[in-house]
């Protein structure tokens, strides 16, 4: 698992440096050609993007828009797992208002530095970025109303621990509301075993039934997985070839099998 973590940390550090230099990121499913548009286009509307610093937008590495789908309310406390350059934290902070708070958690120093700079440019006072790993959230029990994440839980080598930690920090009645890549069907071993692909959101994708089972095992209920975007194999041809994987051998396992999804669950109890 240390190899996975090192690969992810290195990729995200590179993405932060590129964004700080105002160069478009290429991590977490953002590479070259049409796969960029297939995964990342149209996730945020123009009003959302217009309210954010340019470098927060450039560092966006996600596959969804959890802040819009999570139905955040004024006064809530939100935690973004793997917050990167801070785009979803800043959007969440605006949605919950000055009476609420938005935390961002990231393990990469370069991303945290970029997020802090974006926070300062945004002028928001209800935002706090934390250094740490999503498998060991540096917050006390029962303190968060909503957990969001954007194409990051796939990058963990111990997803059970991530989900247990999410359950721990949520208040009773708290909501788990994340965007993630989910696979419908088996993943070839040559994809799953490639460390570079862990940093690209593909190899770490859980099957939908497996994701549901892991959430239930962590204690969650009201679990649902809603597909938000389906990916055809052809848009990833060049991407797989660049990784040294024979595309034709994996195409049947890729075509319309990998999807962006919005994953919801609730911690039992009442707030």
Radius of gyration: 17 Å
Q: In CATH terms, what is the architecture? A: 3-Layer(aba) Sandwich
Separate helix tally: 13
Low-pLDDT runs: 23-40
CATH topology, which one? Rossmann fold
Count of strand segments: 8
Strand content: 15-25%
Mean pLDDT: 81
Task: Give the terminus-to-terminus CA distance.
Answer: 36 Å
- Structural class by secondary-structure content: alpha/beta
Helix content range: 25-40%
Following the backbone from N to C, one meets helices and strands in this order, namely: HHHHHEHEHEEHEHHEHEHHE
Given the C-alpha coordinates, what overall shape results? globular
CATH class: Alpha Beta
Q: Largest sheet at a glance?
A: 8 strands, mixed
What's the assembly state of these chains?
single chain
How many discrete structural domains?
Answer: 1
Q: CATH H-level name... which superfamily?
A: Vaccinia Virus protein VP39
Task: Describe it.
40% of the residues lie in helices and 21% in strands. Strands 1, 2, 3, 4, 5, 6, 7 and 8 form an eight-stranded mixed sheet that branches. Helix 1 (2-20) packs parallel to helix 7. It contains 13 helices and eight strands. Helix 6 (87-96) links the parallel strand 1 and strand 2 (101-106). By secondary structure, the chain is an alpha/beta fold. The protein is globular, with a radius of gyration of 17 Å. It has helices at 2-20, 34-40, 46-50, 54-58, 66-69, 87-96, 109-122, 159-169, 189-192, 195-198, 208-218, 237-242, 247-254; strands at residues 77-81, 101-106, 127-131, 144-149, 170-183, 206-207, 221-230, 258-266. It has a single domain (2-266), classed as Vaccinia Virus protein VP39 (Rossmann fold, 3-Layer(aba) Sandwich), CATH 3.40.50. The longest helix has 19 residues, at 2-20.
